[in-house]
Amino acid sequence: MYVVRPIPKSVNHIRTESNDLFGLMTEPEVRISFSAGSRDMAQIVANGGFVGASTDSINWFESRGDRGWWSATPLNDGSSLFFRKGRRGEEYLRIDKTGTNAFYLLWGI
C-alpha cells in the first residue's frame, strides 16, 4: 500500500484511483480512501512519518477538489491534514473528524 506497511488489520473499504498503474509516470497522481479504527489511524500517521500540514499545504490540498468518494473539501469540518515528502512526490493524508476515515493523495512532482 502507498500509505504505510504493514497495513493495520482494521483497514477496510479501500478505494483507489491512479494515473500510474505500472509505476512509470513521471508525475503520478494517486488517490486512496479507506477506513480504519482510530487507534490504527494514529498508528498509520506515526509509522508513515506524516507530520501536520502547513497552511500552504492545506490550501493546495483543498484546491484538488472533491470526487464524491475522495474528499478534499475545506478542512473547517474538524478534519486533520498530514503531509510527508515521499520519493515519488508529495503525500497528503486527510483524516475526517471521526478519526476513522482517511483520504490519501500522492501528487508526483
Characterization of the model:
This protein has 109 residues and is of the alpha+beta class. Helix content is 17%, strand content 34%. The protein is built from two helices and six strands, in the order ββαβαβββ. It has a six-stranded antiparallel β-sheet with strand order 1-2-6-5-4-3, with helices on both faces. The chain is globular, with a radius of gyration of 13 Å. The chain starts with 11 loop residues before the first strand and ends with a strand.
User: Which blocks of ≥5 consecutive residues have pLDDT under 50?
Assistant: none
What is the overall shape?
globular
Question: Strand sequence of the main sheet, in spatial order?
Answer: 1-2-6-5-4-3
Task: Please report the total strand number as a whole number.
Answer: 6
Instruction: Write the H/E string, N to C.
Output: EEHEHEEE
| Main pleated-sheet profile | 6 strands, antiparallel
The helical percent reads: 10-25%
Separation of the first and last Cα atoms: 20 Å
Overall mean confidence score, pLDDT: 85
Count of individual domains? 1
Radius of gyration: 13 Å
Number of helices: 2
By secondary-structure content and strand pairing, the structural class works out as alpha+beta
What proportion of the residues form beta strands (DSSP E)? 25-35%
